[in-house]
Amino acid sequence: MDKPKVVLGVSGGIAAYKACELLRRLTESGHDVRVVPTASALHFVGAATWSALSGHPVSTEVWDDVHEVPHVRIGQQADLVVVAPATADMLAKAAHGLADDLLTNTLLTARCPVVFAPAMHTEMWEHPATQENVATLRRRGAVVIEPAVGRLTGVDTGKGRLPEPAEIFEVCRRVLARGATEPDLKGRHVVVSAGGTREPLDPVRFLGNRSSGKQGYALARTAAARGARVTLLAANTGLPDPAGVDVVQVGTAVQLREAVLKASADADAVVMAAAVADFRPATYAAGKIKKKDGQDPEPIVMVRNPDILAEISTDRARPGQVIVGFAAETDDVMANGRKKLARKGCDLLVVNEVGERKTFGSEENEAVVLGADGSETPVPHGPKEALAEIVWDLVARRLG
Ligand code: CTP
């Protein structure tokens, strides 16, 4: 089989050096990559580097090798075009259909999926001109990855950093796997909760759990890559925001409930991957609780937290909304899972066995997804992303 043909467009930003790693990942995973830099990109990384790493000649202009008509052929033959970094200028040119060099010509002739990974200063990203250009490109079906937040070129930090090459690579891999067909969650709004709630006892202490949030983040990332608008409600995860996802930070179960009710009002699907504390201390001590010499500690009185999953499953915000729960079990895993599915009233329940060394904090997972319709979908041991893809397959089928 022919290797999939990828065009890596590189526009003129300091993050161009990171595109070398993306190129490496693409070539090493069996893609035939043609690099098309802009003239300004060559100020950052020279043509020799792109040519040596890709094994193809490199040109910025339509006037080289004219007999091969490269300005048309490269785009027509591509299975995927990814532009990383995409500067504000490149997004503007692409949105307006300008074609004054080889990369912009390629973008006009390509009929395959196109991914842009923007990188620029925060002010440029937030400017209404750039935001409108991004909206235009997305409306036409291009995947524009949300820039990461972090250190920018100088000492300043903010939104606008190029997402990590590994993350751009994952987006490319998934977009390529789906081909030029419409992503199945396009136009859908999905809400994912992740992490574990913390219930404070006093200003320095809390009752919490071991959930890392990685499964919820994998769900958010995969939904975004499948075209959904994603709201991620993150409870104490400490993980970097996934590209292209709206992240809302929450602390306690009560705060998570409020955030879920708000975000799910117009959502097509809600996935409760967060580990929610069932109880919270009845009182919160405004000052640090002190030990008293010669006295036993005061017992901690607990009260019930709301059951968010049961509440949103009973009172659906929209007809046809698909609701997914997770069941972390240590004993009698399947029997408890089935009872929990019935008790909560959700459409799907991802049942997995947890323990100190199982699932929590790890990159992998193994589960069975139970459906309210009686279905059972086993998910073999594998990356949390793979489980996430299966959950979205099941959700997409239910959304029709
Ligand atoms: N959940 C929730 N609100 C709670 C507790 C749990 O929304 N107060 C959700 C979780 O996000 C998860 C599902 O319910 O999707 C199951 O969580 P789990 O802790 O396994 O269930 P519990 O109802 O707490 O059952 P138990 O602790 O008795 O096993």
Structure explained in plain terms:
By secondary structure, the chain is α/β, with parallel strands linked by helices. It folds into 2 domains: 5-178, Flavin prenyltransferase-like (Rossmann fold, 3-Layer(aba) Sandwich), CATH 3.40.50.1950; 189-399, CoaB-like (Rossmann fold). It contains 13 helices and 19 strands. It has helices at 16-28, 47-54, 70-77, 88-96, 102-109, 122-126, 128-139, 165-178, 214-225, 253-264, 308-314, 333-344, 384-399; strands spanning 5-10, 32-37, 80-86, 114-118, 143-144, 148-151, 157-161, 189-195, 199-202, 205-207, 229-235, 246-250, 269-272, 279-281, 302-304, 322-329, 348-353, 364-371, 376-383. The strands form 5 sheets. It has an 8-stranded mixed β-sheet, sandwiched between helices. The protein has a 5-stranded parallel β-sheet with strand order 2-1-3-4-5, with helices on both faces. Helix 12 (333-344) links the parallel strand 16 (322-329) and strand 17 (348-353). Helix 1 (16-28) packs parallel to helix 2, helix 3 packs across helix 5 and helix 4 packs across helix 7 (128-139). The two termini are 33 Å apart. The model has no long low-confidence stretch (mean pLDDT 91). The structure holds cytidine-5'-triphosphate (CTP). Residues 253, 272, 274, 276, 278, 305, 307-309, 325-328 line the site of cytidine-5'-triphosphate (CTP).
